[in-house]
Write a structure and sequence with these properties.
By secondary structure, the chain is mainly alpha-helical. It has nine helices and two strands, in the order ααααααββααα. The radius of gyration is 21 Å and the shape is elongated.
């Protein structure tokens, strides 16, 4: 399962590189291309249908090579994600963390595959530290100061949790879902990026608790 995840991550990086390359080449001819991996099909179609007076034939044929690779990558990524989905449906350990806000199927399967023994960590904080989601401590003049997160440990899991936290914070800021009071309070005092890392840290601790207890996540009951 971890090999599947690492392969998908490699293909996603290659897809991003291809999209950026195609967008950059098209910009040289004054053509604005759609952003985002979700609009890959639209980007490929624009290259295919570009007017020859705007996009010369040699440039079109060259970009077509890149779009063919992009289409192949998109198919391969979808295939890997179908395998991930199939694993998720038959793996109880993957389904438990997926009940936590900000943890989707990709993150849940990666966590269950990477953390086979939650007892290896004494607490949720130790697990968050393993992921590099705790502030670095610096001593100066006998005083302890907390800096940026350490970014030690498993960078792939850390990135997945931060991406999930970003989604939760974005929904909280737009008001599409009811946010926890502590998220709203932090957003009033701190930049969104700081709140996102705090959310990822909290999610990591909840993940450890869920995996260690063998239970699902239950949101706290508000008064």
């Amino acid at each position: 399962m971890l090999v599947l995840h690492k392969t998908r991550e490699l293909l996603v990086r290659q897809r991003t590189m291809l999209i950026n390359a195609i967008r950059g080449h098209r910009a040289e001819f004054g053509i604005i291309a759609p952003q985002g991996a979700r609009r890959t099909g639209e980007l490929i179609e624009q290259v295919r249908k570009a007017d020859r007076s705007v996009l010369p034939e040699l440039a079109r044929s060259t970009l077509s090579l890149l779009t063919q690779q992009l289409a192949a990558l998109a198919t391969q990524i979808r295939t890997l994600e179908r395998h991930l989905l199939a694993w998720y449906h038959q793996d109880k350990a993957s389904q438990r963390p997926a009940t936590i806000p900000g943890v989707g199927i990709i993150t849940a399967t990666a966590l269950s595959a990477a953390v086979t023994d939650p007892a290896a960590f004494r607490s949720g904080r130790e697990f968050a530290a393993f992921l590099g989601l705790v502030p670095r401590q610096n001593s100066s003049g006998g005083k302890e100061r907390l800096g940026r997160i350490s970014k030690m440990g498993d960078g792939y899991l850390r990135k997945l949790l931060v991406v999930g936290a970003t989604s939760v914070i974005r929904r909280a800021r737009t008001g599409t879902v009811g946010a926890a009071p502590w998220i709203r309070a932090l957003l009033e005092r701190r930049p969104a990026r700081v709140v996102t890392v705090a959310m990822a840290n909290k999610t990591a601790r909840i993940v450890w608790a869920v995996l260690a207890s063998g239970d699902v996540y239950r949101p706290p009951v508000t008064a």
